[in-house]
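User: Could you walk me through two proteins back to back? I'd like the raw sequence and the structure tokens for each, with a short line separating them so I can tell where one ends and the next begins.

Assistant: Of course. Protein one, sequence then structure:
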Amino acid sequence: MNSPSMNQVFRRLFSHEICSRTRYRSLLGLQESRRLTRPSRQVSTTRGPDDDSARESSWQQRTDLFPLDKSKDFERYPRVTADMLRSRKERPKRVKMLTRDFIEDSLYNPNYGYFSKQVVIFSPGEPFDFQSMRDELEFNRILGRRYTEFEDKLDSVAPNDTRQLWHTPTELFRPYYGEAIARYLAENYKLSHHPYHDLIIYELGAGNGTLMLNILDHIRDFYPDVYDRTKFKVIEISSALASMQASQLHKSASSRGHTNHVEIINKSIFDWETYVPEQCWVLALEVFDNFAHDSIRYDPFTEEPLQGNVLIDNYGDFYEFYTHEIDPVASRFLRVRSVACSQPFDHPLKGSRILRNLKARLPFAANLTMPEYIPTRLMQFFDILHEYFPHHRLLTSDFHTLPDTIKGYNAPVVQTRYQRRVVPVSTPLVQQGYFDILFPTNFAVVEDIYRAMTGKLTRVSSHENFLKRWAYVEDTQTRSGENPLLSWYKNASVMSTV
């Protein structure tokens, strides 16, 4: 990551406007190929037959005036999945895969994935004293100073221009955010399960372990009878974060007291095979946004869907192909959504078919619609809840809208960090492991699909309204009356099983 060649790549990459796009093709049985005109991604100016060093040393913008035809490569390259790539220590070449597998591999590959190797979660140190602050502007200034101090400390040990540092509401509003979740869990548990069942909590992706400790601290201090029956289980895909959570658990005498209540399970939720017959809560806070999605485009005339595939050539360059063959997972999602959704939702075929056909006949018009990103991995998560956690109650919070998304419907933000600046790009087909790929969640659609797949009832509320109900908001109110706990994350919603 800190090699001279990699730093040179990033310097060149970020020395001009980021407009890295891939090439789009629809494959009509691989016999007819009509190209969509789009700016293309950056590639090397000179190459040897298999010379990656030359490729990494010089980048330029390629146009679509004379695009390369990769149809033959698409025919002969083997198809792989993210599961097949887990044991690989190097990024694959000369392969093809579905878009969701490319995203999954980019984010979660154990050897080069974004969450496995690159992510550092910001910890502000001592909790913020909001009541002593004048207003939210002062909070922003103090937060900025602590960010700088935190990263300066990291750089004093190991300087890194491409450190992927980000924060969560758990860390920013510690311990108040975790206490609100704890009150929600304890009060609902007492209403429905206490004293006949244990309070069993599963947290997906526990980060630094801060939420786990804040929840357990609060239940221990304010609900001692509930604490005696509390079991907290973390399901963590990242080995590094699982080790950090275990370390946090033994950091102080107070946290060590929770040891008998905690189990850290280092595995992906998608590898889960243990049946859980007990009543339990599943916490998935800011998890849905990083679940892999499939890319779907539609023929504007026939309205037939085509599924996105990614081809990686011998030089590590990416090319996007769309085929009429829809895999069973994406096909099932489209069927479930069609049946389950009770409200209209945005997608490429919404609107007048006549106008869409007219636009498609214009000169230089694209031969396929804009891409739609569908949350197929989220559907598989609901399958796991239904099959292995039949008596669960889900609590999830995520972003219902995001700024600076790439083009498309339900499209993600794709970004990296370079020299302490966030740099957004315009395609999800980027160097695996160096970029965050996060999607908005359409809670109207997701809620209907979850209900249809699990048979459970749900409630969706704004992030602000949830915290107004369960947090002691006076703890985070500044002297001016502004409250960062409520004003931040206005683009987030909370969904809970009732």
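----
Protein two, same layout:
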Amino acid sequence: MTGKRKIVVAGGNGFLGSRICKSAVARGWDVTSISRSGEPAWSSVTSSADAPPWSKSVSWQRADLLRPTTYQPMLKDADAVVHSMGILLEADYKGVLSGKESIWRGLSRAFSATKGGSQNPLERKVGEALMPQEKDGQLTYELMNRDSAIALAQEASAQKVSSFVFISAAAGTPILPTRYITTKRDAESTIASSLPKLRSIFIRPGFLYDSSRTFTLPIAFFGSAGSMVNSALGGRLTALAGAAVEKPLKADLVAEAVVEAIDDGGVKGVITTEMIEALANKAWRRGML
């Protein structure tokens, strides 16, 4: 891809999404972020409460990912759309951690074998809203990690967008419900099989860290140690520990890799940790020229 491109980032005001926007702005692209709240609360994604200079080059739009009519106009003439709006913890799991939910009730629901998402997104008409199937309207893994991604890819395809990036994950972890990763894998396979004309890119990073979130640094340290041990054992810990022994990556590095993947028309399919690092290095070399 050459020249000025248009990229739309769903969840562009988040930890990784904002960095994807930043990397795209650095290339001179037309960047739009869509989220329920618009511009980020900068103190939650960077080390400063002040908006960085590059943020003025982003169109921070409010939209509801479950209601495609709120974001359809923003997809017009886009070259690439990024889905960066999955959830790590569901409400009942968060409730247990915060003490608002009893441990037994919250964890039994959080670790249930299945929960409702929306109506079958493959049978949804273009523009039709996603309807949460849980009685309390909870934003489940099925709804946010799977169905919202499938619907966004469908809407992007309907608008003739050429590339779609889904921020997936390297693996699950023992402390999270299995559905966290299975719903992401379901989204990947469904998008790849049902929308073959769309150049789909599935980014699978492990734990993301940044100095602006100091609590991520010790986690990354121990994760790096676990990754080295796992590598020395030939990857035998992966089945047991999942992402806990996957090499942690700096959030800015992953963002650079996402933008480089979009720019390189030959990149598609699953992008592993090693490939993420290679793409980021390629972007770095490009910036040095």
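The beta strands are 6-10, 30-35, 58-62, 80-83, 163-167, 199-203, 208-209, 249-250, 269-271.

Let me know if you want the two compared in more detail.
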